[in-house]
């Protein structure tokens, strides 16, 4: 059970079968995205995918792209091809967390309001920490979600406690924005 900064929001992070120690030696890129429209229409799902930085070309060959640009059939085909490669090596692993509509509503309606942006930030932070806690050598984070739009996304993450004593340097990218922060 992931415990987030607010002390209020708590939901389980589900990891893929090979997430722990996934390519622990190679530098990896971690991409974060969200799906859902908030408490009115159901849950929000926050997910991350990790892949070695040097496998970007292979991901493009498989057809990996923004899910909104792919048909449901193509998304399933791409997902299955990432795990069923000829060489038997997986080039992507994943983790996700689901915030129920009830949890979102309770956070937003409580006396001390807790916005969907804050929930989004904390979910992204929890996924990054989960990857680091599972010995994934994350060196770059690509956030496709609105969390990067809020000022100080990298600063918020750098203030969070991460396991271990070593310092991690992460590059945060969103379109043309690149900044570095140390964990």
TrEMBL record:
Keywords: Endonuclease, Hydrolase, Metal-binding, Nuclease. GO terms for molecular function: metal ion binding; RNA binding; RNA-DNA hybrid ribonuclease activity. Residues 27-183 form the RNase H type-2 domain. The keyword Hydrolase applies. It comes from the Eukaryota. One of its GO terms (biological process) is DNA replication, removal of RNA primer. The keyword Phosphoprotein does not apply. Pfam families: RNase_HII (PF01351). Its EC number is 3.1.26.4. It is an enzyme of class 3 (hydrolase). Endonuclease that specifically degrades the RNA of RNA-DNA hybrids. This is Ribonuclease. It comes from Enterobius vermicularis.
